[in-house]
Amino acid sequence: MNRDQLLNELSAFLRIPSVSTLPAHNQDCRAAAEWVAQELRRLGCHDVQFLGSETHPVVWGAGPEIAGAPTLLIYGHYDVQPPDPLAEWTTPPFEPSVRDGRLYARGAADDKGQVFCLLKAIAASPRPPVNFRFLIEGEEEYGSKVLFDLVEREPQRVHADAILVADMSYVAPGWPAVYTTLRGLAYAEITVRTSKTDLHSGEYGGAAPNAHEELARLLTRIKGEDGKINIPGFYGPVQRPSKTELAAWKKLPFKEKDFLNKRVQGKGLVGLRKYSVLERLWALPTFEIHGVLGGFTGEGAKTVIPAEATAKVSMRLVPNQKLKTVERQLEAAVKRFAPKYVTASVRFLHGADPAQIKLNDPSFKLLDQAFKQVLGRGTVPARAGGSIPVVPALASGGAPVILTGIGLPDDRLHAPNEKLELKQLWDGIEVFRTFYELLGESGRG
Ligand code: BES
Ligand code: MN
Ligand code: MN
Hints:
CATH architecture of the largest domain: 3-Layer(aba) Sandwich
Strand content: 15-25%
Bound molecules: ligand BES, manganese (II) ion
Helix content: 25-40%
Structural class: alpha+beta
Order of helices and strands: HHEEEEEHEHEEEEHHHHEEEHEEHEHEEH
Distance between the termini: 30 Å
Radius of gyration: 23 Å
CATH class of the largest domain: Alpha Beta
Number of helices: 12
CATH topology of the largest domain: Aminopeptidase
CATH superfamily of the largest domain: Zn peptidases
């Protein structure tokens, strides 16, 4: 297929600002769903539907059915995260632009570019004998509630011989990966209230409690300077990776120094020093503060003691931790750490259990082989620090969930100047084309 044409088509998809968490973009999410549906029809699916459309629809596609051929369910998401801070983008987030072989746009790597890659790989050769099914959702970045409900209501949607998810990256250029775990997530707002209204900081300062100060102390009680999370019971179910797994990570092309200098681009790393950086990123839970609201943040100066302050926080969870348990633990910790004169409350916005995937299905070998044929190197097993909420539900029907991706670690997901390298895209189309063919052949045997 003509690369210029492919690039034009992908750019049209990327131009749709399908930000699922902002209601102002509901129409755009709809437009992105329509784009996906149209693409599925072009691929020959005769059963294309919008499912669970109370919010952003899940796009379902299936057929034509080939008797006896293996069934491959392809999962992806057409929604993206908000693009701000806008001023930091070299070119606007929804005006895709190619520079130095890189395509810059919100969603280029997460996940529109990868969905595009999976779909175009089907059209890249005579259609292999595979029964393709598609679940492309529009709420992944907001917790995937619609798709959860759908899978619960209609579990047969996830019945397949394999489920393919390309929403991750290589571990390094030239090193494709297949992921054995995803972290879960518990997203919450913690609010503290210290008085009925804001107070004059001269009349009251020195004797009245300050909501921001109380919130700051509460947050640092939850997670200390040493990086340890002090929520009672939190680490209880956390297991260390096996010796074999830790030894395998040592062989990956990952240098802590490069991670600091080239990726974080800061002056130092934090966290539990006893553990390697990869273990901190992949196998340990986190507590992060995303933003703090309340008090006076306008221009100029105002001498006031804020009565209320709120922090948006989240915790990443690792295998064996349970979302529901962790939510209860955080609530209890907040109650326990807040002094008596403070009213503290927690509101949960969304969450996901962690996922753990065994690589024992033959389809993992086929993907490994496909990468080997195209790149000269097969997949290395790795873990992912990020979350894809619906993966445990996708796995619930028993099909192996293949977690992989064509991005690179420095694609700047969710951040300004997100990009996808075009080489990754063209290689990716070849890789998945080969994978589909191998899968089709395996079905004939
Ligand atoms: N594609 C990412 C998940 C990801 C990123 C996995 C990097 C592995 C490595 C996905 O789109 C994502 O960002 N998920 C959210 C989920 C949340 C909003 C419920 C996340 O991880 O923050
Ligand atoms: Mn994604
Ligand atoms: Mn994302």
